[in-house]
Amino acid sequence: MIRLEDVSFKYKNKVALNKIDINIEEGESIAIIGPNGSGKSTLLKLLNGIIFASQGKYFFDETEISEETIKDNKFSKSFHKKIGFVFQNSDTQLFCSTVFEEIAFGPIQMGLSNEDIEKRVSSCLRMLNIEKVKDEHPYNLSGGEKKRVAIASVLALNPEVLVLDEPMNGIDPKGKKFLKELLIMLNKSGKTIICATHDFEYVEGIFKRGIVFSENHNIIRDDRYENIIKDKQFLEEHNII
Amino acid sequence: MIDEWLLEKDSYIPKGEKNSYIEKSIFSMVKTVSIIRENKIKEGIIYHINPLLKVVISILNLIFIAITRSFIYVGIFDIYLLSALLMMDKRDRIRIIKMSLIFPIITFIALIPAILMGNIYNSLLILQKVLSTIVLMSILSHTTRWSDINKALKLMFIPDIIIWIMDITIKYIVLLAEYSIDLLFALKLRSVGSSKDKNKFISSIVGNVFLKSYKMSEEMSSAMECRGFVGEYSISKNLTFKKYDYIYVIINLGMFLLFAIKFV
């Protein structure tokens, strides 16, 4: 489904990703692990077509994702519909006047009927347990609630791939447990989950595969998530725990 | 429990749309932020001249250009600016030349009636003054860091608190612009269809940025209070001069003298 071939990315002259090769199949749940500044967030931005590889190729459903292909308005929309991105900072993801409008934005864009929009929004509100705040301005919510609204707004588009950047950041333990259960449920329902994370305590059971980045911005291990987490010496050696 | 619609793949085919307003907004903001963030001092003597001198002399030159009525003075001053441009980085030079041509062209169009009425000398003088002023200020802004320009204002007896406000403003322009870029990206990623009122969300983003700036200013105010800030802000002046600073002063004293001769 997702294939990165020898992908590198540079911010001006600084290397952020160094010759990355990744192959992701539909339905996988993958944790992107690495120390700060190792390139995790850059990879997620690249997967979502926000930035483009300086070198190498990125394929989504066998179609190359490049600046040129994303310029095609119709293709770009179809691509963004299939892959949803939950930003690290929810503040920068919410731009509507109410939580309801925020979640309804995607379905409205898709041209769904009012009945279907209502159905999707109510379903997301219930699933994320944010029914009480549906008429509030997203800006006035707590950090955890904002994160839930951001996830709901992306889920309302029913993407095939869900990409999350440090989803556990700024959430209380109860919220983390809730989010963990939700991600497990979504993965079981067939969604591909790709998630950059630092928080290993609350993500147990979500991921089947782990991809580890080094401080040199390349992949140093691609293994079963459990094997990586059990290897304390490896994690300490690479400044991950 | 997961609802049924989430278990099925949507058979959604988006319609094509010509509106690229969001992409253009992102592109122009990224471009502006990268220019402001380009805070590195580049290679070349002109970039290393003491910022205090550069600011003071540039302001004096600006005043002299504004009040002179001599074509020769402005002409010689243009040669001086041209040689300064030649000492600059190629990218900066091209950017300044491009920027400096827009306003003189507009001014020329506005002055066409005056030229046709026979007021050629004054019209051309105004045109030359506009060009010189823009190039002069562009050279200053491209060769001096914003923070250094702010510090140089201290020499002009501008209160520290004003300098501090300007300093913080420049820093926050970048932060808020990055925040806006992320919001625009979020809008772009979720704009998977064609909706006529999509652009109305731009105003919503502006509102969000305003709220964010208000919150950030409140937080910073509290943080500064906790660090013992009581309204006094002192900054140091860099009054150490090198060989090329003296050369710069001598050249400019020559320009001042020329102005005095031509003015009198």
Quick summary of this structure?
By secondary structure, chain A is α/β, with parallel strands linked by helices.
Number of strands of chain A: 10
Mean residue pLDDT of chain A = 91
Helix content of chain A: 25-40%
Round the Cα radius of gyration of chain A to an integer and report it.
Answer: 18 Å
Shape of chain B: extended
Distance between the termini of chain A: 31 Å
Strand content of chain A: 15-25%
Helix share, percent of chain B:
over 70%
- What share of residues are in beta strands of chain B? under 5%
- CATH level-two architecture of chain A: 3-Layer(aba) Sandwich
How does the overall form of chain A come out from the CA principal axes? globular
**Low-confidence blocks of residues of chain B:** none
CATH topology of chain A: Rossmann fold
Element pattern of chain A in H and E: EEEHEEHHEHHHEHEEEHH
Provide an overview of this structure.
The complex is a heterodimer of chains A (241) and B (264). Chain A is α/β, with parallel strands linked by helices and 241 residues long. Chain A has a single domain (2-92, 157-237), classed as P-loop containing nucleotide triphosphate hydrolases (Rossmann fold, 3-Layer(aba) Sandwich), CATH 3.40.50.300. In chain A, 37% of the residues lie in helices and 24% in strands. Chain A has helices spanning 40-47, 67-71, 73-82, 99-109, 114-127, 143-155, 173-188, 225-230, 232-237, and strands at 2-11, 14-24, 29-33, 55-60, 63-64, 83-86, 161-165, 192-196, 209-213, 219-224. In chain A, the strands form two sheets. Chain A has a six-stranded mixed β-sheet with strand order 6-7-8-3-9-10, with helices on both faces. In chain A, helix 4 packs across helix 5 (114-127), helix 4 (99-109) runs parallel beside helix 6 and helix 5 packs antiparallel against helix 6 (143-155). The model of chain A has no long low-confidence stretch (mean pLDDT 91). With 264 residues, chain B is mainly α. Chain B has two domains: 48-144 and 238-264, no CATH class; 157-191 and 200-233, no CATH class. Chain B is 74% helix and 0% strand. Chain B has helices at 4-7, 21-37, 45-48, 51-67, 71-86, 90-116, 120-143, 146-152, 160-190, 200-226, 243-263. Chain B is extended, with a radius of gyration of 25 Å. The model of chain B has no long low-confidence stretch (mean pLDDT 85). Chain A binds chain B through residues 48, 50, 73-74, 77-78, 80-81, 84-85, 87, 89, 91-97, 105-106, 108-111, 116, 119-120, 123, 127, 139, 153-155, 157-158, 160, 185-186, 189-191, and chain B through 1-3, 5-10, 12-18, 20, 179, 182-183, 185-195, 198, 201, 204-205, 208, 211-212.
